Amino acid sequence: MWYLPNLPITFLLKENFGFGAAETAAFFSITVIPWLIKPIYGLISDFVPLFGQRRRSYFIVFSALAAAMGLSLTLVGSYTYWNVAIFFTLMGFGLAFTDVLTDALMVENGQRLGLTGPFQAVQWCAISLASILVGVGGGWLAERNNLSLTFLIATIFPMITLAMAMLLIREPRVQTGERQFRETWAAIRGAIRSRTLWIVAGFIFFYHFSPSFGPALVYYATDRLGFSKLFLGTLDSLLYASGIVGAALYFAFSKSVSFKNLIHFAIGAGVAATLAYLAYRGEVSAVVLSLLFGAVGMIIQLTFLDLAARACPKQAEATFFAFLTSIYNGAVQLSQITGGWLYDRVGFERLILISAGFTAFCWLLVPLLKLAELDPAGRSERS
Fold this sequence. Notes:
By secondary structure, the chain is mostly helical. It is 79% helix and 0% strand.
């Protein structure tokens, strides 16, 4: 629910401050910083148990931080560029840390059971349900220009996370001595020397770096097509509702379809879905494309997150899944900045063609991945 204020903030920057698409993308490149340094949170959690626990205690501390920053934004009164940027970034810091902890629990249990794909499908199905509320709620709140109410609603969710961490997470205490440190450090050193891990990181970066729409799509939809803020929020909700279907399909087929085929599908579907936005001409086409891209986009995203989870070494799951998702987040942010810059210079249609071309180039990189090494059965045989 950290994304709930994004659409209202976008229109604050567009309408109150007169920012263009590239400047708006640059603002969000500040607020996304906590999501780009997630490996640091993983290192802290893996190496330094807090009160004898690697996950639960940190959940409590950083959920409280996110709630406090959200409440500060609610009460600040007058919104400037820098007070929104600073407090929203700090709120993201708390949420990004808890996101790393959630992923660490998923990878630890998913690798043990060979269910990283299905686990992530369930996780992202829940995220999509929340995102439906974000889409409709963000559009409704953007129409009313009520940032204080927006941040108040966004604050409720880290408060819920705080309560759940205190009441529901059960974690055995771990020893904080030299042996634990040596085991974790050995896992990290081994991963750093792993050619496979770095190839996976490069592949994830290049696929998601392809110049994307991001804020450019919002500007195109409002300035060229005349869409209302509420309609844009509704489109986001349709996108996420369709994403639930995509997550369900990935849950059903990820164990029976070879992972190599899933990677090829992700690239091909990414090219096709991007080119389909050439038909983004009115409300009907916007609804159809949101429904289509929501499901396809979720399957693509889960494929790459599954790839990241399979590449993580044991004993340092939080660190390296956070590292790979930071690569993912950084590439997406750079793609949005590049996309905003290109939109202002070459227009929407040419931006789509450039983005599709970058995505298609990823087919040439697939042979480098050595996907057999990431198969759970092959991993268990070698260990």
